[in-house]
């Protein structure tokens, strides 16, 4: 257990940040899954709208440090390719 006040503060802060990051990660995954489901159903218009939202959320998460920016770009690129193939 932490002995210094600053170490105790960091433990509390780190747990709060971990919770926020987990929520952001979950939110991004949800949007990506929705987009994938719409792509699988073959609905290009709705898939494109869902993709725009997913792209925004993914890049925001990358900016916040939840995902690496290359990971976000790769995911967005793959979704875009799937939509283009429809």
Structure summarized in a few sentences:
With 86 residues, the chain is mainly α. The protein has helices at residues 5-41, 44-64, 69-85. Helix 1 runs antiparallel to helix 2 (44-64) and helix 2 (44-64) packs antiparallel against helix 3.
Mind explaining what this structure looks like?
The structure is a single chain. The chain contains three helices and no strands. With 86 residues, the protein is mostly helical. The chain has one domain: Up-down Bundle (Methane Monooxygenase Hydroxylase, Chain G, domain 1).
List keywords for this structure.
single chain, 86 residues, mainly alpha, Methane Monooxygenase Hydroxylase, Chain G, domain 1, 3 helices
CATH homology-level superfamily: Ribosomal protein S20
Number of strands: 0
Q: How many discrete structural domains?
A: 1
* SS strand fraction: under 5%
Give the CATH architecture: Up-down Bundle
Question: What percent of residues adopt helix (DSSP H or I)?
Answer: over 70%
- Say what the CATH topology is: Methane Monooxygenase Hydroxylase, Chain G, domain 1
| CATH top level class name | Mainly Alpha
- Please trace the helix and strand order, writing H or E for each element: HHH
Radius of gyration: 17 Å
Rounded to the nearest angstrom, the distance between the terminal CA atoms is 55 Å
Largest sheet: none
Coarse shape = elongated
Secondary structural class:
mainly alpha
Instruction: Determine the mean pLDDT.
Output: 94
């Amino acid at each position: 257990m932490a002995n210094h006040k600053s170490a105790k503060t960091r433990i509390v802060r780190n747990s709060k940040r971990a919770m926020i990051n987990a929520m952001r990660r979950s939110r991004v995954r949800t949007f990506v899954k929705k987009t994938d489901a719409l792509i699988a159903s073959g609905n290009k218009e709705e898939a494109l709208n869902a993709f725009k939202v997913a792209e925004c959320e993914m890049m925001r998460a990358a900016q916040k440090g939840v995902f690496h920016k290359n990971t976000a770009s790769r995911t967005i690129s793959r979704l875009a390719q799937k939509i283009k193939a429809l």
